[in-house]
């Protein structure tokens, strides 16, 4: 085993002990069983029920978004947000190349075209300065829309992603969307509990989206949410995610092509209980970060990623950044750590390298490429702190 | 109150008693709490876990399908089946005008075009004779494909729906799909437990789809399943519904635009317990039918719909058919029964009458129109028997 891998394993062992650990495990220390049982007892397990209301209210209280619509997963939340933001067939939507594939997929579901953007090392998210220069060079404004001069297509929206929970540089990003007439939709799937200048991520754009998949800070089994401050759009989101059915005592009238995307009450019952634990989870994850930080102080050529100073991160996934000079050892480290029963993962394969996304427009991606070759996520469950 | 409504209310009261009753309520008389708690204890609540496997195995055993893939809902099951059957942008797909809107929506998600077909009174489903005559008159075969001469589009598939649980005339329907080179996908969302000549509905086509929504014979909160006998297509369905991620120890590689459609383990735990109750539910629903049959014997101008003799129905929703001559009283009966706290519903609004589906191709729909004006569903929960 390389001394690098040995150092990393030993630092992780110092923090989490020597038992096998996975990357991120859910925990149910609160009222999870109780509320789920209550839901079964009520027989309202499906798309109607008080736990959906409770869960949405708690998300409103916690995030400060005016409206929250709970849906089946984060992908569905993105899909609906894009549609409601007016993204149409053949529009382009800017997203970081360094993201989970769901961000790109949701754009394809609208028949739209993902357009890949570079990242910055200080936030791991979209680099607003590089993006501004790029848009200056390739777009022109036409009737209030941002047109890609090369493809002649409209660039409709920008979807920054708060990678591993760390907020992007939202102020500068919002200046870009303002100056270039783009809709801002925040993919906050990973950043429940993360604040930018004291305000919750996901509440800066026209829409923000959350995920409650099993690997997230809180889970509903599968689940997601749409955040918005716009009452009309919130109403439309509720309508569109419930097969666009009009209210009527008995008639089945649907006024547009709708979706079956609402979160079942059973999953919301779990989510409502998890919301009661969220503050403790976040405190634990921050403690875990602090313990890793101390443990990795003496590991050469590797640095534990720290929240940028303008924000407070939920530290969803703890992230090691290897020095450029040793990035060729990434796979060996992944191999050795996983062999040692410490579950570690690289960043996602960059979108433009995936078979279904090879032929889409992209800016130069020097930083995303570098980050993707050097990132290793290490065990991050709140239960480890 | 009209004497017709009085007679109907009194017949329903004879069967279900005088307490308020809803149209269809779930019941959890078995191991529902136990398995759901076991799932929480395992912490595997999300898209991986033993309950998904167990639930799928039980569905294989029960339906006789070779492969079952559990997904988030019946709409997702249809969407995936259509995609995997090769339905492409601008293809036409034949569906009954008399169905729930999800059948049409799933076609639109593929960018394809629903083409509406008439029903028959004896099954409430697609009329294979009328369809054959219609296809003879408007289609021609070209390179092994069925082409709509009017629209020049390829008609790719036929999706019959087993309405309210009653099997369509599958033998004649399969003859049509064979003779006209159409793919058969059965929408069996409503017909879990229904047999056609002793074989389970949903296992005759290239794909069959089930729904486990809260109003169905068994429920998972939200859920659905894809049935198929084709091992390659089953593999593709699993792949496509889990973001098309390739197996790798750590890399995130996705080889096509995938979907986040797998059923969470939490919901599968509920479904697994419900499968243990299914036989009893079906027996109860049949008993309920028999009791309604007796109670409605003396109600003039109204007939309780009975399974066709070539099949065994799950009697998901009990159905009254009013005589043509009194169909103008349908809304009064709906009003009076609901006022009496007996939840009743008409059939769905015919698809071609819905705003988003007005301009799509359709055959003449005399029977569907007549049925839609005369059907009333009455309380059908298995707990009522």
Radius of gyration of chain A: 21 Å
Low-pLDDT runs of 5+ residues of chain A are none
The percentage helix of chain A is 25-40%
Number of domains of chain A: 2
Explain the layout of strands and helices.
The structure is a homodimer of 385-residue chains.
Chain A: H1 3-16, H2 32-42, H3 50-63, E1 67-71, H4 74-84, E2 92-96, H5 101-109, E3 113-117, H6 128-138, E4 139-142, E5 145-148, E6 154-158, H7 170-179, E7 183-187, E8 195-196, E9 199-200, E10 207-211, E11 224-228, H8 231-241, H9 265-296, E12 302-304, E13 311-312, E14 318-322, H10 330-339, E15 345-346, H11 366-374, E16 375-378
Parallel strand pairs in A: 2-3, 2-6, 6-7, 7-10
Antiparallel strand pairs in A: 1-11, 4-5, 5-6, 8-9, 8-13, 10-11, 12-14, 14-16, 15-16
Please give a structural write-up.
Two copies of one chain form a homodimer. By secondary structure, the first copy, chain A, is an alpha+beta fold. The first copy, chain A, has two domains: 3-27 and 277-348 and 377-384, Aspartate Aminotransferase, domain 1; 32-276, 3-Layer(aba) Sandwich (Aspartate Aminotransferase, domain 2), CATH 3.40.640.10. The first copy, chain A, is built from eleven helices and 16 strands. Chain A has helices at residues 3-16, 32-42, 50-63, 74-84, 101-109, 128-138, 170-179, 231-241, 265-296, 330-339, 366-374; strands at 67-71, 92-96, 113-117, 139-142, 145-148, 154-158, 183-187, 195-196, 199-200, 207-211, 224-228, 302-304, 311-312, 318-322, 345-346, 375-378. In chain A, strands 1, 2, 3, 4, 5, 6, 7, 10 and 11 form a nine-stranded mixed beta sheet that branches. In chain A, helix 7 (170-179) links the parallel strand 6 and strand 7. In chain A, helix 2 (32-42) packs antiparallel against helix 9. Chains A and B meet through helix 2, helix 4, helix 5, helix 9 and strand 15 of A and helix 2, helix 4, helix 5, helix 9 and strand 15 of B.
